[in-house]
Amino acid sequence: MGIIYNFLSFLFVFIFNFQDVSSAPTRQLCHPEQRDALLEFKNEFEIGEPSYGCYSGVKPKTESWVNHSECCYWDGVKCDAKSGEVIELDLTCSRLHGRFHSNSKIFMVQSLRSLDLSVNDLRGQIPFLIGNLSHLTDLKLYNNYLDGENPSSFGSLKKLATLDV
């Protein structure tokens, strides 16, 4: 009787634990449209010499950005563990050189909560479409060569807690 009880107890615990593991949520992968938008954003700029204040031996974070790869594992990219949406983009000191386009593909990644493009060589005005990133809590664009007025669309960023331009 004791052997049967022990066996049934073991079987019950095994089945219960197996159901727990099999019903655990799996990590979502990067959304293809967000991966494509990030790759297009990368291609909007040239990779140049490091900006003043950046260590010259550091490789650009966008070097790890390769088509058909998991963007949640790219340098500078952080995704939500459940949804797989890109929520943070940190491209500080990434040697990005060029004009910040008014129709930049970065504005398609509307799940972004944190965007750090500081200490690069971005030029031009801060695009009006930045107001489309309504989930932003942190925006850092300092140590670039951005000119002009801050766009009125900053007023659309209701969750913005940190703004460093």
Q: What does the model show?
A:
It is a single chain. The protein has helices at residues 2-22, 32-43, and strands at 46-47, 77-79, 86-90, 96-99, 114-116, 121-124, 138-140, 145-146, 162-164. It is an alpha/beta fold and 165 residues long. The chain has one domain (30-164): Alpha-Beta Horseshoe (Leucine-rich repeat, LRR (right-handed beta-alpha superhelix)), CATH 3.80.10.10. A 5-stranded mixed beta sheet has the order 2-3-5-7-9, with no helix packed on it.
Low-confidence stretches: 16-25
Radius of gyration: 22 Å
Number of domains: 1
Overall 3D shape: globular
CATH structural class: Alpha Beta
Class of secondary structure makeup: alpha/beta
| Termini gap | 75 Å
SSE ordering? HHEEEEEEEEE
Helix coverage percent: 10-25%
In round numbers, the mean pLDDT is 87
For the largest sheet, list the strands in their spatial order. Answer: 2-3-5-7-9
What would you say about this model in short?
The chain contains two helices and nine strands; from the N terminus they run ααβββββββββ.
Per-chain topology:
Elements: H1 2-22, H2 32-43, E1 46-47, E2 77-79, E3 86-90, E4 96-99, E5 114-116, E6 121-124, E7 138-140, E8 145-146, E9 162-164
Parallel strand pairs: 3-5, 4-6, 5-7, 6-8, 7-9
Antiparallel strand pairs: 1-4, 2-3
List keywords for this structure.
membrane, five-stranded mixed sheet, repeat, globular, four-stranded mixed sheet, leucine-rich repeat, Leucine-rich repeat, LRR (right-handed beta-alpha superhelix), signal, LRR_dom_sf, single chain, 9 strands, alpha/beta, 165 residues
